[in-house]
């Protein structure tokens, strides 16, 4: 390819606060239209915004998690424009003096590792929604979303492919959910992005005019929209044309992007500091307090799992699917004393039960401590792994301990060599043909004979001992 893509993303992350950024209206999704609206959201004259402290806490926690600087003197700006879903006639947002400054995200794709610098993270309010009713051919306005808090996270144009853009978005999506600052629900618009795309000759380092793709709310659409746009711009450049700076809309049904507004129609937002709001002066002690609440971050945790327990990428990804799952894994490991064993069992039999359950790990009936009780009995050879597999679903359903279930069902593994030797002798006597074949060099017969001994022991003989004794006796 002669061209390389240059991509910067603007992510909109809806914060999981109970109320809006500057009013006490509920920020919950899904109510009747205009049920969550008050005088402040409606922009009545004379009312004053009151900043939501929880939104500031969330933004600070997030900024610290991405290694950004928390601006001690941030302030809010009015971004003025006219649109029916914006009753005040301006959006309260931030610009260069945003609360989050700098930071970086390291993304990994099949093509390698990429460091993406963050320009800033703005604390701002969302607009309402225009709802078109096809039946009456009329458009209504729903202002439930008007004033809901967002972080707009602006990256530098450091991404070089659609795959990297998706990886970046996925990583941040995971992080905001992990931190608990956003539910990340993409269908409900809690996590969406504008993608800025330009291309340039491979190896050059200038920037060409960019196209902004608006409001994309799925990982698949981001990938498709960016790839389509790279193709469109490449075609233009190849035929000697120039790419115009503009805003385009992605249409997933037609698999195309089309012009929304050109640079000439671009808005002049007449930004100015909002006179109704004080500067957002954050004391260093307050920021330090938030820093104290920062949990161990996903990447640090993955590294710890790999280094302490030798887990592979697949295992760490499974465990880190949510923060609660990782907490469950940590509790399981602490209680059974074996991180590798705990990981194997989580990904194996546990995963099947968990999928069937279909909820969150914090709601499952099996505590990490009771689960660990089972793993301890596998570790000390009281029961076989096979018996453990059989027991796990019962443990999940019941409130008994593993020890109680093992005793009640007589599942203790027989580790007594003389008892196992007797079974081995019986099996050798009962299968002269297979024994002869084995001694003739058909080593696969060992598996058959081991199976026979285990069967005779009703699954209670320790398979390792069986195997060793069989080999010993067959060699005689
Ligand atoms: P503006 O001030 O016009 O909004 P910004 O500098 O804030 O522009 O950039 C907005 C977004 O566009 C950022 O995410 C940035 O990385 C990205 N961007 C800027 N220039 C380019 C370019 N030439 N190609 C691709 N993305 C770009
Ligand atoms: Mg911008």
Structure description:
This protein has 476 residues and is of the alpha+beta class. The chain folds into 3 domains: 3-285, no CATH class; 296-409, no CATH class; 417-475, Orthogonal Bundle (Arc Repressor Mutant, subunit A), CATH 1.10.10.410. Helices cover 41% and strands 20% of the residues. It contains 16 helices and 17 strands. It has helices at 39-42, 53-65, 162-179, 219-238, 284-292, 298-309, 313-319, 323-336, 339-357, 368-379, 385-397, 402-409, 417-430, 432-439, 445-456, 463-474; strands at 3-14, 69-70, 73-74, 77-80, 90-93, 100-101, 104-109, 112-125, 129-133, 138-142, 149-155, 191-201, 211-216, 246-251, 256-262, 272-273, 280-281. The strands form 4 sheets. Strands 1, 2, 6, 7, 8, 11, 12, 13, 14 and 15 form a 10-stranded mixed β-sheet that branches. The protein has a 3-stranded antiparallel β-sheet with strand order 5-4-16, with no helix packed on it. Helix 10 (368-379) packs antiparallel against helix 11 (385-397), helix 13 crosses helix 16 (463-474) and helix 15 crosses helix 16. 36% of the residues are buried. The mean pLDDT is 94. Bound molecules: adenosine-5'-diphosphate and magnesium ion. Residues 6-10, 154-157, 196-198, 207-208, 210 line the site of adenosine-5'-diphosphate. Pfam families: GatB_N, GatB_Yqey. Heterotrimer of A, B and C subunits. Its EC number is 6.3.5.-. Belongs to the GatB/GatE family. GatB subfamily. InterPro entries: Asn/Gln-tRNA_amidoTrfase_suB/E, Asn/Gln-tRNA_Trfase_suB/E_cat, Asn/Gln_amidotransferase, Asn/Gln_tRNA_amidoTrase-B-like, GatB, GatB_C_1, GatB_Yqey_C_2, Gln-tRNA_amidoTrfase_suB_CS.
């Amino acid at each position: 390819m002669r061209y390389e893509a240059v991509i910067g993303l603007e992510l909109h992350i809806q914060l999981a606060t109970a109320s809006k950024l500057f009013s006490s209206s509920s920020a919950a999704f899904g109510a009747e239209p205009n049920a969550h609206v008050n005088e402040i959201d409606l922009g009545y004259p004379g009312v004053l915004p009151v900043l939501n402290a929880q939104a500031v806490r969330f933004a600070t926690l997030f900024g610290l998690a991405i290694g950004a600087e928390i601006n001690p003197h941030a302030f809010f700006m009015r971004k003025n424009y006219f649109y029916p879903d914006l009753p005040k006639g301006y959006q309260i947002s931030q610009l260069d003096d945003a609360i989050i400054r700098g930071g970086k995200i390291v993304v990994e794709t099949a093509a390698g590792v990429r460091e993406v610098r963050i320009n800033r993270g703005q604390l701002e309010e969302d607009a309402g929604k225009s709802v078109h009713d096809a039946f009456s051919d009329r458009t209504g306005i729903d202002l439930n979303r008007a004033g809901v808090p967002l972080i707009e996270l602006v990256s530098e144009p450091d991404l070089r492919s659609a795959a990297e853009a998706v990886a970046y978005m996925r990583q941040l999506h995971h992080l905001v959910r992990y931190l608990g600052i956003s539910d990340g629900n993409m269908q409900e618009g809690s996590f969406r992005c504008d993608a800025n795309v330009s291309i340039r000759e491979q190896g050059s380092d200038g920037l060409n005019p960019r196209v902004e793709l608006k409001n994309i709310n799925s990982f698949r659409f981001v990938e498709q929209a960016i790839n389509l746009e790279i193709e469109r711009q490449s075609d233009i450049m190849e035929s000697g044309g120039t790419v115009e700076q503009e805003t385009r809309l992605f249409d997933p049904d037609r698999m195309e992007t089309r012009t929304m507004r050109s640079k000439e129609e671009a808005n002049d937002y007449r930004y100015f500091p909002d006179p109704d709001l004080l500067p957002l002066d954050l004391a260093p002690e307050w920021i330090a307090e938030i820093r104290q609440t920062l949990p161990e971050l996903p990447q640090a945790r993955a590294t710890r799992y790999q280094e302490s327990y030798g887990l592979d990428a697949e295992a760490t990804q499974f465990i880190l699917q949510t923060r609660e799952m990782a907490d469950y894994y940590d509790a399981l490991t602490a209680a059974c004393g074996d991180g590798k064993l705990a990981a194997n069992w989580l990904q194996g039999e546990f995963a099947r039960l968990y999928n069937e359950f279909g909820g969150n790990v914090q709601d499952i009936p099996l505590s990490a401590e009771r689960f660990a009780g089972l793993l301890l009995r596998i570790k000390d050879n009281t029961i076989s792994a096979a018996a453990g597999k059989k027991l796990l679903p019962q443990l999940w359903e019941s409130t008994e301990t593993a020890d109680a279930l093992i005793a009640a069902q007589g599942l203790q593994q027989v580790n007594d060599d003389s008892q196992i030797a007797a079974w081995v002798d019986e099996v050798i006597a009962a299968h002269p043909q297979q024994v002869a074949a084995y001694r003739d060099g058909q080593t696969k017969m060992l598996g058959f004979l081991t199976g026979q001994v285990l069967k005779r022991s009703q699954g209670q003989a320790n398979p390792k001992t069986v195997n060793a004794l069989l080999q010993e006796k067959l060699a005689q």
